[in-house]
Design brief:
With 96 residues, the protein is of the alpha+beta class. It has a single domain, classed as 3-Layer(aba) Sandwich (Aminopeptidase), CATH 3.40.630.30. The protein is 26% helix and 39% strand. A 5-stranded mixed sheet has the order 1-2-3-4-5. Strand 3 and strand 4 form a beta hairpin. The radius of gyration is 13 Å and the shape is globular.
């Protein structure tokens, strides 16, 4: 299996991380509250990609960008919130 390519798309105050694998799209959407605060809104993974690590790859892209760009994450998305609890090493990246 080749390594996934995740693309970050931003339009105004909204954005998403997009992963395309085997013709199926998974995404993690976010809202930009300020230059230092991003709200993780929703993670959508189609049935065909469930259990393949697609959601985790999107979460890891969000975490990597937060660390590189210096913003905090508000985890409104239940999946992102669950992953946050599994990764205590990233606790400094979450607001609240």
């Amino acid at each position: 299996m080749s390594e996934d390519s995740i693309k970050k798309e931003v339009s105004g105050s909204k954005g998403r991380y997009l992963l395309i694998r085997d013709g199926h799209e998974a995404e993690l959407t976010f809202s930009i509250a300020s230059p230092t605060l991003v709200i993780a809104d929703h993670t959508g993974v189609p049935e065909e990609l469930r259990g393949t690590g697609a959601g985790r790859a999107l979460f890891e892209a969000l975490i990597a960008n937060a660390r590189a760009d210096g913003f905090k994450i508000v985890p409104l998305c239940p999946f992102v919130n669950a992953e946050r609890r599994k990764h205590p090493g990233a606790a400094d990246l979450f607001a609240g």
